[in-house]
Amino acid sequence: MQKLLKRSAQVHRQVARRQRVAREKNASDTRKLLIQQQSAVIKARREIQVSARRAYKEDWVLGPLAPRRDVGDKAETYGTVPLRSTQTVDKMEGEWKKWGIRAGDRVCVVGERERDRGKIGVVREIMEKAETCRVVGINMVNVPTPEYMKTSERQEIPVQTIAAPIPLSSVRLVIPLYDPSTGITRDVIVKELFLKGGQRFIANYIVPGEQSRLHCIPWPEKEKPANVEDHDDDTFRIDVEQVTWVPTLLRAPMPEGVIDELRYKYSKFRTRHEDWYIEKKKSQDETLQKKEEELKWGGGTPKEMLTPVQELNRMRRMEREGLERNKVAEEVLAGIGEVMAGKGKSLAPGAMEEQEAKAERDMESIFFEEDWESRVDSQAPHRFNSKHRRRKEAKSSLARQ
């Protein structure tokens, strides 16, 4: 069961990694496409400006000899701008800014490069992704009527006038504000707005006489939908709102086999399984774990082959590790503490001799066991030499004490 869960988790991680890479590639491709669209719009606008400057220069230099440009194919559309230059380009997701302006608000054009600077109009449309808006009666341009409109809608007029988009950064909200000092209500251009809790407020402005309340600007009213006519085949509202299913804990909300319909039974992405399948996998894991425990010899790892001598040495080592280590008597510890403190108090009579004898017996027992192991195991003579050296050093240190 653990292998199954591990494989499912690994597959989910791989799929998530591939999806992340695909999202990054999609975002990169989208950014490149937006850059190309912005370049095309800027190029179309630049061509209009260059051609207008060239025509103006020719008219100024040639005077009455200047050529007429409202003839031929441009006889009816001379002075119009291509539709390409009036289109907007959306920004990348996450780069949009909330300006606090909606359709129906009154705004004033304040952009330095806008030809209708200072005019006030009503916002007709907001393009949030492109951060532009269309204002009624402002930034109007003439565009040629497309061919499909001439054929399908029978538009005989060759030129149409539309409102070109204006950046939201070039407009400011206009609201009627009451001045208590003069008692007159007049239009005020809001320099900066800030949004909070779904409402918009004037930044850095407090209502005179009410220092604790900021001035809230209401949102424009939405247009009411047209009256919808009822028909005989419409569903009644009481039937729509009637509760026809109540959840209960006595039975499952869906049939047990529905999971096989939603996800293939042997899919590697599947994480939910039937009860009998889970019990089967658990029993297999228990059987495998029992076999591994049976293969362990002397507490070692599975499938490890040991000689009888190695097995005996391991058992002795485990017994030694299980025994409690020899503790130093309290009198010896007290004596060591007195000596370290410099009081010069000697140990109890016979305490040092008893400790030396006990250490000697322990050394002899350890030496006997290790000597026997080293004589049996002929492949490790260096082990006997090193342990014999440690035994001699321990005896010499006791003798010095």
Number of strands: 11
Distance between the ends: 62 Å
Low-pLDDT runs: 367-384
Look at the structure and give the mean pLDDT: 76
Spatial extent as radius of gyration: 46 Å
Biggest beta sheet attributes: 6 strands, antiparallel
By DSSP (H or I, 4+ residues per run), the number of helices equals: 9
Multimerization state: single chain
Beta-strand fraction estimate: 5-15%
Assign the structural class, choosing from mainly alpha, mainly beta, alpha/beta, alpha+beta, or little secondary structure: alpha+beta
- Please tell me what the overall shape is: elongated
Order of helices and strands: HEEEEHEEEEEEEHHHHHHH
Walk across the major sheet and give the strand order.
6-3-2-1-7-8
How helix-rich are the residues, as a percent range?
Answer: 40-55%
Task: Write structural notes for this entry.
- This protein is of the alpha+beta class and 401 residues long.
- 43% of the residues lie in helices and 15% in strands.
- Strand 2 (120-127) and strand 3 form a beta hairpin.
- Helix 8 (351-376) runs antiparallel to helix 9 (381-400).
- The longest helix is centred in the first third of the chain and has 61 residues, at 2-62.
- It starts with a helix and ends with a helix.
